[in-house]
Amino acid sequence: MVDVQHWLSALPPVTVYLIVAGVIGVESMGVPLPGEIVLVSSALLAATGVVEPEWVAAAAAFGAVVGDSIGYAVGRRGGRPLLHRLGRRFPKHLGPAQLARAEQSFARHGVWAVFFGRFVALLRILAGPLAGALHVPYRRFLLANAAGGLVWAFGTTYLLYSVGRAAEHWLKDISWAGLVVAVLAGVGSTWWLRRRAHRAEPLPTADETTRPVNAGRE
């Protein structure tokens, strides 16, 4: 992520906004791209004054809403065969187990899976195409999609922008040794929490993988 932030800092602000919108938009269509990394890097870059946080957030929200809508249209037209083709092309991110887990989220939560899915890497990629393939009513999808995209984009941007501004102020009085220790501690705790969450998350059984999903359920 540091490399991404350094690369973005060398670009004109307008180009950064376009990259944020483009990467997040394509990711929302169903293509695994590092949309969250680009948003986080750009938000932290805004804390240094290189770009404006409101434009970063607006670009991210635009890419999320438009990309999800395009993904919905593609999924509705291509149906489940399209999802299976994506799974074969990106087995690590969109394989049968991931698809089954996403379908279970839709079956359990309906369009709320679109809203909350914006904050989950798997559903952020699959929400649009999967909602279209399952024939979720578009008006309900659009409402949840727009709400989730706006909350995720502006919330993430301004949270990290505020953290970055505070860190820039306090780091003036912290030695490099203390900074290295703090970064290592943060990385280590994040890795440990993700590992615990991954172990605790149940994988779908064979019956769950093949179970049809009721698209009308919310």
From TrEMBL:
<dbReference type="Pfam" id="PF09335">
    <property type="entry name" value="VTT_dom"/>
</dbReference>
<comment type="similarity">
    <text>Belongs to the DedA family.</text>
</comment>
<keyword id="KW-0472">Membrane</keyword>
<protein>
    <submittedName>
        <fullName>Membrane protein DedA, SNARE-associated domain</fullName>
    </submittedName>
</protein>
<dbReference type="InterPro" id="IPR051311">
    <property type="entry name" value="DedA_domain"/>
</dbReference>
<dbReference type="InterPro" id="IPR032816">
    <property type="entry name" value="VTT_dom"/>
</dbReference>
<feature type="transmembrane region" description="Helical">
    <location>
        <begin position="111"/>
        <end position="135"/>
    </location>
</feature>
<feature type="transmembrane region" description="Helical">
    <location>
        <begin position="141"/>
        <end position="161"/>
    </location>
</feature>
<feature type="transmembrane region" description="Helical">
    <location>
        <begin position="6"/>
        <end position="26"/>
    </location>
</feature>
<keyword id="KW-1133">Transmembrane helix</keyword>
<keyword id="KW-1003">Cell membrane</keyword>
<feature type="domain" description="VTT">
    <location>
        <begin position="41"/>
        <end position="161"/>
    </location>
</feature>
<feature type="transmembrane region" description="Helical">
    <location>
        <begin position="173"/>
        <end position="193"/>
    </location>
</feature>
<keyword id="KW-0812">Transmembrane</keyword>
<dbReference type="GO" id="GO:0005886">
    <property type="term" value="C:plasma membrane"/>
</dbReference>
